[in-house]
Amino acid sequence: MSGPQCCSNPPTLDAGSGAGHVENLAGFNTYVSGSLQSKIAILLVPDVFGYEAPNLRKLADKVAAAGFYVVAPDFFYGEPYDADKPDRPIVEWLKDHGPAKGFEDAKLIVDALKSKGFSSIGAAGFCWGAKVVVELSKVPLIQAAVMLHPSFVTVDDMKSVKVPTAILGAEIDQRSPPELVKQFDEILKANSVDNFTKIFPKCSHGWSVRYDVNDPTAAGCANEAHKDMLEWFTKYLN
């Protein structure tokens, strides 16, 4: 079950943030950034705070600037997790917004991207979103995957991954501690799946999207993770 780290340091959501725009994709309100001319799409699957998180949208814009068409759908149907609602604790919230439902919804997004002519699709998942991405990687419906501070992902999940996968973990992470991330790495290597694994020292779960932009150290760590993610997609998507 999701722990306290998944819900800590919540962002201030802003529906108007980002240089892109929101449109309907496969029935989902979706933040979109980049050109349809790209033919290479990146699906960003958020943490429990959803697609209106400014840092997530900033990352979408950064990925789009590198030449990709980026989509970040509202997988939570207008109800991201809200720690200020004591009558709706994370355990109850997950009953309506579990990763299994997210995977089913993500398949619709991938189908919609393919119908737009995208020949290559990558997906990055943050916390909750990593579980959705690992499921996409098993089928596989995508060509490359990145998981950042994953939650819910298991050793058994990793045994079924079929696409090149990068795992970016935090040194301080109760959901996916370094020891577990190293197990993931060993499984991918044993199965001859191209992979890249990195543990970010002194970083905590959620650091890649839930960071203080005014904190140079935190922003620097997040930017390093973003760079690794971009390099992975650039290497495997064409």
TrEMBL record:
Transmembrane segments: none annotated. Residues 29-237 form the Dienelactone hydrolase domain. PANTHER family: DIENELACTONE HYDROLASE (PTHR17630), ENDO-1,31,4-BETA-D-GLUCANASE-LIKE (PTHR17630:SF97). This is Dienelactone hydrolase domain-containing protein.
